[in-house]
Amino acid sequence: MTIELDSRDRSILRILQTDGRITNSDLAEKVHLSPSACLRRVRQLEESGLIKGYAMVLDDRTAGFPGTAFVFVTLDQQGRASLEGFEQAVQNLPEILECHLLAGAHDYMMRVIYRDSADFERIHTDIITQLPGVTRVQSTLTLRTIKKTSVLPV
Predict the structure, then answer these.
(1) Other C-beta atoms within 10 Å of 110: how many?
(2) Whole-prediction pTM value?
(3) How confident is the model at residue 137 (pLDDT cuts 50, 70, 90)?
(4) Does the structure show a pLDDT above 90 at 1?
(5) What are the DSSP calls for 84-137, one per residue?
(6) Contacts with 97 (C-beta within 8 Å, 6 or more apart), sequence order
(7) Any idea what DSSP says for residue 20?
(8) For position 2, what pLDDT does the model report?
(9) Which of 51, 44, 64 is nearest to 115 (CA)?
(10) Which of 132, 68, 62 is closest to 95 using CA atoms?
């Protein structure tokens, strides 16, 4: 479902994506609305589900996680129960920041953070390979992040 957005809604979204802590009065001034009209629009965007929430973004390295790996996982079966079992098990693993169901050679791709090579070995051996239905794991370690954003081009 797509939501009809006008130019002011798009401006509000662009600003909030880069500064989620902006005050409503400052936001209203930037998009040329009264504070009450601006707040009403923001609430409508939240209620529509387009704005899912607000979050603080931490720096991986400064937080002690200099390593990022993309891990491709193949399951022994692709039935609904097998997929659901794997997906449920992934939910509470803090080292796995993202998990995507794929179409192609692998069933899932995960973005994993780690502290050092020993930590990644622990995550690989004790966590990922022990997930339900996992038969194959292929990891690609990143050397450097060139671009990382959560800002959508609205």
Answers:
(1) 21
(2) 0.89
(3) very high
(4) no
(5) HHHHHHHTT-TTEEEEEE-SSS-SEEEEEEESSHHHHHHIIIIIGGGSTTEEEE
(6) 110, 111, 112, 113
(7) T
(8) 77
(9) 64
(10) 68
